[in-house]
Amino acid sequence: MKNRRVLSLILALVMVFSLSISASAAVTVEWSKERYEEAATKIDKVPADLSGKTVILHTNDVHGAVAQYAKLAALKADFEAAGATVMLVDAGDYSSGDPNVSFSQGKSAIELMNAVGYDYATLGNHEFDYGWATLDANLKNAKFTVLSDVQYQGKDAFAVGEVKDLAAAGLKLGFFGLTTPETATKAHPGKTAGVAWPEKADMMKAAQTAVDKLKADGADLVIGIVHLGIEEENVPNSSRDLYKEVTGIDFIIDGHSHCVMTSGEDKEPIQSTGTKLVNVGVIVIDNATKKIESNCLFDLANYTKEVESVKTISDRVIKEVDDEFGAVFAVTAVDLDGANKIARYHETNLGDLIADALLWFVKDGGMDAITVPANRVIALTNGGGIREDIKTGDVTKKAVNTVLPFGNTVKVVYVTGAELLEALEASTRSFPMGGFPQVAGIKFTIDDTKAYNEGAQYPGSTYYAPKTIERVTIDNINGRDFDPKATYAVITNDFLADGGDTYYAFAAASAKFDTSIPMDEVVMEYIKTELKGTITAEKYGKPQGRITIKEDPIKAYSDVEVTAWYAPALRYVVEAGSMTGTAADKFAPKATITRAEVMKLIANMAGADTKPAAGEQWYEKAVAWAVENKISDGKDATAVSTREDFATMLYNYMKMQGKGFTGNWMFLLDNPDAADISEEADEAMHWMVMNKIIKGVDSAGTLAPKASATRAEMAQILLNMSTVK
Q: What is the spatial distance between Cα 71 and Cα 676, in angstroms, rounded to a whole number?
């Protein structure tokens, strides 16, 4: 999928080109789902009359937001009161992610889902956090049907699909469920013995088989309830891949990515509610036509109704957790950032604190089991395991358990420097990633302008090892030079130590040992003992600069492919400030440019004042400057520029700088369409070709001098010009 990060800071543009920045522009690039969220259709009131309609309400990635279930039950009742036949389904990750469900190891989630009245659910990767035996025992109490392609001991553990006959509505709905193959490394490998998640080929085959059977069994519509996600790291097992490869699916209810969306990037019928039951998915089906007539999200923010019987259960669950974890043990003077996935693509102050706690516990906490020198000990934990913020004020055990809800223990692995570098490269292959490292005792740099060089697939994983190290450079280890041949002790969590996420290099480590101490207890002890119960702004007010990311500026633009031929050129002009986007998230590389735009760009390159006076067109000063300096004749300023036209104007600018042909010259073009060049562009095109600034539009060297010039071509020309001495 195309990049889902946008610029958080972009200069306001009044025109397509700008050269007002003479040096490289500093920008902050952040990953965001705004392209989905801003386009998502939302409602906050139940339609008055839904007679003759069937409504599918759906949730995903609830992650212990148990207080919302009473609202969900009331919403379900409201849709039924409006005349609809209502189905309620969930796309996974309801058993884990917050002390309100982890305290009971998922049992309380099943109790509440029964009380609300779910019909179907699939399994998310976090359903396996407590092991197969616990999950199996919990699901024996479920009053809803689980649909999934998960296998246990070589056999299907659940039905993949089922037809629901809604006789009163005269409708048959076919549902099927899929669980991401990433679960093999997204769940603790030590807790899932005997469980298997089919990889792409088998998953797609199982899905197609299920869809075909549902159709054969009379389903009017086929709905996927899947926990696959839409992020780059989910490819090739994403919900978008599913819709593209499996025929016969009418709609996909998705989970895993925590994305708020009512359609896919290419308008695929995929919907997801985000996380924590902030929204509820709504799919409206007309019973007469047996067609989906609309889909949207219901925003629960201002919805106040609750079903008392469900609230009684959630209140009891919350009280049990509060009684156990509610005591205040520390105070923080700053917000500690972990929510909204920031820890999956940037160093955060909370990530620093957690890593510091791990390092303190083993390195400085009195343990003498480490067998390498102290200067070769580091700590690393995955950003995907940091689930929430800690806000300024009192800090409770519940807050720490909400941040670290998975019960991971502290483990030490011994790896070579080369293996450590491999792990860092693999875990930062794209953004965001659950494996993104939060660290202590190490500083490293990620060059996001470089592509991940994919090698062989890791055994038992959906991830691939790096064939070569391209993106990551280790700057130092505890202030000392990095040695790829040296042995380092990495203090981490047992999930990563056993090969979770992208950390196969840790699973294959030469030696390791488990302290058996839970991470949350280590973090609390660090705050109480080392920090004396106070988290200060001086120490954790901001990230400490352990990770440097060289951002790729072109990933801000949703219409730019980072592997396209023009990508290096766009990267050059954006970094240099030579060209910017036509909008915050659009570069329009294939759009044509006008002669005025070229003149404006050149005038800005020369440092001329092109700001229009009151009542002037944006290009008037630039055109006047271009005429005065013999860059152009200024005619037909608003016409689309041809390739030979912008080559001539740029050549005239080069001559201003003392470049270009001087005196007599002779250079013959052997390009197949050289004769098509206009007489007035002849010298410019010769010089441009001779200096390899213009190289033709195909392998034959066709110059296409009369073709319209595009923004991408302009960027490429500027890049090529930068190499001319």
A: 71
